[in-house]
Design brief:
296 residues, alpha/beta, six-stranded mixed sheet, 9 helices, 43% helix, GTP-binding, SRP_receptor_beta_su, transmembrane, Signal recognition particle receptor subunit beta
Length: 296
Amino acid sequence: MARTDSQSWLSSLMSPSPIAIAVAALLVLSIPLFLHLVIYRSASSSTIPSFLLVGPSGSGKTSLLTLFERGRHAETRISQAPLTVEVSLPVTTTTASSPYRSANDPSNQIHKKFLLADTPGHGKLRHYAFDSVIKPQNLKGIIFMVDAADVSTSSGGTSNEALRQAAEYLHDLLLLLQKRANTKSPRGPTELPVLVAANKLDLFTALPAPLLKTALESEITNMRSLRTKGLLDSGIGMNDLDIGDEKEWLGEGGEGKFDFTQMDEVNVSVTVAGGNVLGADGPDVKQWWDWIGSNL
């Protein structure tokens, strides 16, 4: 009897039912597929490159975000919170990873993906942008948008409020990047380029990119001098500031004329390029796309 039971059990084991076979086959096929999807999604979310979009309110950041994401303009409102979208680089834009590929290479027809993070430009909300610089997530570059039509100098040759605000924001951003580089934190990238995007160049009153560059450098120079003078007037001596060691001042020791090339010492290249998100003849953002592609 025992021998018969043993034979029956062994026969059942060697000849499973159709349901058991179907369940086993389903498990064999689904488990690897499930693991692949989980690992792929996890890797994609952590490795996709990102760019940070910053600048004063009204400079056109959200409009640019919408244009890049949808390929067309849409009505926008002043941002009150950060917004991140996934963007596809145009296939006609060359990336740094494939500068010498043939135009007929099939890989050139594949859209390169990246994340674009828009941050509010209001003074009380700029901490979102600064936090993203301190704790970067595969950050490849920063786009600082400026309304080139709003920062034109007045008839008397003095800078207006819009230019001062843009220069102050850019000064604080570059100073943060300088400090981040000097801390040699392993968490951040060793090089971080900045694009100053001169927007609304289709307007007659807009400053061309070279003049905007000069105006921002001049305003940052004045701002740096005033901040240094303010500390000196408060009784703090130059030796107490220890400018050269602590890098508390933007550029070369906080003295003399500032220009963007001084940021090269901390691996922060600054490029000024013009364009426009809107316009009677449509958007003109090719230089900005090219800059993004050169850093992907």
